[in-house]
Write a structure and sequence with these properties.
single chain; 404 residues; alpha/beta; Rossmann fold; 2 domains; eight-stranded mixed β-sheet; 15 helices; 19 strands; 34% helix; binds cytidine-5'-triphosphate
Length: 404
């Protein structure tokens, strides 16, 4: 069997926006990670990036027309044989044509014949994205099972900034990887809003010092990426992670536990599920010194008085913003892991608790982890050592049937 036939087949559709150049990076990532990629640009995309570039980078022929290589019936075959179709960037015009089933070029024909998962990564100016016509087209595509990734917020073409930017190619690649790995054509979190907190809070002592913890935020980001790849609207509230925004997530940046609480309460108001993966400081310095605390010769350092931070997980569990909202907590324990986990699940009042064993070389900052997910109805789901995405998918597998 030729090598290309054993590789997952990806169709990379490119429509005519300036972000077309970023699709070259996505193409590279797909080919370098072992995918057979067929690029299908629109005629306008070819005004931004020419066919020789797509052809050289993909190693496959490139055309935007149904009239080339007609004996191979490309307008049907390319879609039929694909394992994944990803359109990046997807312009407002592209979304409109796809939503209405128009088939006037090779890419729109391919979209009609594909029976595999289809991902759209829209990019356009904010006004075009927010226009009711575009929003209705997006809703139509989502209702039919396509995954339409929310655009990022940031610099657009020209001087303006706002929502409509193509997410970073590395992050679109992550979505493609997750969708291909699951291979399902109906995203099971479609239409759901999930809120995830990630990272570790920092409680300032003075302008240069803080009390912090060792959480990297990787588990929270894995939850955000997997939820977006399963179709959810994702609000990611991140504290001090320094990581790039996952594709499709609205990211809120916070520093302290009190800021995190405010952001979680606000976002949870219309959330179907809230996952508290952040390591929230239980205490903060009772006083914040406006100026840097100086050491004084011959004087002992003053003790640091601490006060309790509110327990956000317990608060949102006791006073749910919506009936049937599913709330997930995390527990990091060093010993007697299950007993402490069961006790914490009861005390906090959440529906699911992910219990991690932590230690010098366990969980914090690593790409992989091992955990047990406890539920309020008494089930225990062990998740063997593996990538944090695996644990994230197990969490969503347990959340989905509990959603109202
Ligand atoms: N959490 C929270 N607000 C806090 C502290 C923790 O929402 N002020 C959340 C975390 O996001 C996590 C869960 O509670 O989902 C478990 O936190 P943990 O610190 O392990 O639990 P504690 O109740 O602080 O228990 P202990 O420190 O005694 O282990």
């Amino acid at each position: 069997m030729p090598e290309s036939q054993s590789k997952p087949r990806v169709v990379l559709g490119v429509s005519g926006g300036i972000a077309a150049y970023k699709a070259c990076e996505l193409l590279r990532r797909l080919t370098e990670s072992g995918h057979d990629v067929r690029v299908v640009p629109t005629a306008s995309a070819l005004r931004f990036v020419g066919a020789p570039t797509w052809s050289a980078l993909s190693g496959n022929p490139v055309s935007d027309r149904v009239w080339d290589d007609v004996h191979e019936v490309p307008h049907v075959r390319i879609g039929q044989t694909a394992d994944l179709v990803v359109v990046a960037p997807a312009t407002a015009d592209m979304l409109a044509r796809a939503a209405h089933g128009i088939a006037d070029d090779l890419l729109t024909n391919t979209l009609l014949t594909a029976r595999c998962p289809v991902v759209f990564a829209p990019a356009m100016h904010t006004e075009m994205w927010e226009h009711p016509a575009t929003q209705e087209n997006v809703a139509t595509l989502r209702r039919r099972g396509a995954l339409v990734v929310e655009p990022a917020v940031g610099r657009l073409t020209g001087a303006d900034t706002g929502k409509g930017r193509l997410p970073e190619p590395a992050e679109i690649f992550e979505v493609c990887r997750r969708v291909l790995a699951r291979g399902v054509t109906a995203p099971d979190l479609a239409g759901r809003h999930v809120v995830i907190s990630a990272g570790g809070t920092r409680e300032p002592l003075d302008p240069v010092r803080y009390l912090g913890n060792r959480s990297s935020g990787k588990q929270g980001y894995a939850l955000a990426r997997t939820a977006a790849a399963r179709g959810a609207r994702v609000t990611l509230i991140e504290a001090n992670t320094g990581m790039p925004d996952p594709a499709g997530a609205d990211v809120v940046h916070v520093g302290t536990a009190l800021q995190l609480r405010e952001a979680v309460l606000k976002a949870a108001a219309d959330a179907d599920a809230v996952v508290m993966a952040a390591a929230v400081a239980d205490f903060r310095p009772a006083e914040y010194a406006e100026g840097k605390i100086k050491k004084r010769e011959g004087q002992e350092p003053a003790p640091v008085a601490l006060v309790r931070n509110p327990d956000i997980l317990a608060e949102i569990s006791a006073d749910r913003a919506r009936p049937g909202q599913v709330i997930v907590g995390f527990a990091a324990e060093t010993d007697d892991v299950l007993a402490h986990g069961c006790e914490k699940l009861r005390r906090k009042g959440c529906d699911l608790l992910v219990v991690n064993e932590v230690g010098e070389r366990k969980t914090f900052g690593l790409e992989e982890s091992e955990a047990v997910v406890l539920t309020s109805d008494g089930s225990e789901t062990p998740v063997p050592y593996g990538p944090k995405e695996g644990l994230a998918d197990t969490v969503w597998d347990l959340v989905v049937p509990r959603l109202a």
